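Researcher: Let's walk through a ligand-bound prediction step by step. First, I give you the protein sequence. Second, the SMILES string for guanosine-5'-triphosphate. Third, you return the three-dimensional complex as structure tokens. Ready?
Model: Ready.
Researcher: Here are steps one and two:
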Amino acid sequence: MSQDSSDNSRSLSLEHILAQAEQDQNVVTDYQAGYVAVIGRPNVGKSTIMNEMLGQKLSITSHKPQTTRHRIHGIHTTALHQIVYVDTPGMHLGGKKSINDYMNRTANSAFADVDVILFVVEAGRWTKEDKAVAKKLQNSEQPVLVIVNKVDKFPNKEELMPFIQQVSQELSFTAMIPVSAYKKINLSAIQDEVLKYLPNRNAIFPEDYVTDRSTRFLAAEIIREKLMRTLGEEVPYGATVEIEQFKYVEEEGRWLIHALILVERPGQKQIVIGKGGQVIKNIGTQARRDLNNLVDGRVHLELWVKIKENWSDDARALASLGYDDNYSS
Ligand SMILES: Nc1nc2c(ncn2[C@@H]2O[C@H](COP(=O)(O)OP(=O)(O)OP(=O)(O)O)[C@@H](O)[C@H]2O)c(=O)[nH]1
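Model: Step three, the predicted complex:
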């Protein structure tokens, strides 16, 4: 073999490699992956739906509006697709406090970069706040799927017709899907419809990821959920949870979690503690059950209540508690 021909064959194989690399880049994968924002006014069931779609509990739920304050990514991966759900705080009209501003900003920014929007509404109840969300979605470039949740409240489907007509008049949407997250009715239709619009793309997150939030963060959310479920109206919006310690104690074979419940006023502290410490004990017992599941082991939980005045109306305090605009997907 002459020197010339061997050079030639080397340059041919280089060309081949470059061509192959270009082909690889243009490969059309069958795999589908993308982001799905779950939006709507408070209390329509966004978190319940997302938890059901994921088959596990990530977002906290309660019967009180505005339970969700942060945006959480729940990741559902199969051999064929990866759907990344972006749960948002319920969008609402009222309130001048920093926390309300923060929640609306987070919700607004959540649907800027997604592939599909799930607009969750409550069967039979179309409010001013729903209208405001509908208005924001009017010029949306992404497909909008209207999820009519809580249809279990209407055993007679005929009674839902006026509601469906009203929504149809006020918003142009890609599809409308009636479901009950609570009774697990028709939830698979949501995924079927989402998959029609999810792009062909490789997985965004590694396949064993279920959320991009830390265990520590999820632990704080679990405690906050129990707090909101246990207490009356006046405390929960003035309360938040900060995890001070989260560590595995080898000798005890269990996790040690120290959490601070921050409230704004002395009266609230009394309510959270309860007579003879009964209320906080009850919150702790409920939270520990879920925390055991979270860490898949045993948890020793210590809860403390502390007053931090006006934390919900102080931008710096909010940032220090993790309500941070810089958090990104
Ligand atoms: N009857 C009925 N209740 C439901 C259904 N889905 C959710 N709920 C209840 O509605 C309440 C609110 O649910 P969430 O999932 O916390 O609502 P959300 O929209 O995430 O609320 P925010 O966090 O305030 O934005 C809870 O008490 C749920 O149990 C449903 O299909 N039927």
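Researcher: And what stands out?
Model: Residues 40, 42-48, 61-63, 65-68, 89-90, 149-150, 152-153, 180-182 surround guanosine-5'-triphosphate (CB under 6 Å). Confidence is low (pLDDT under 50) at residues 1-11, 324-329.
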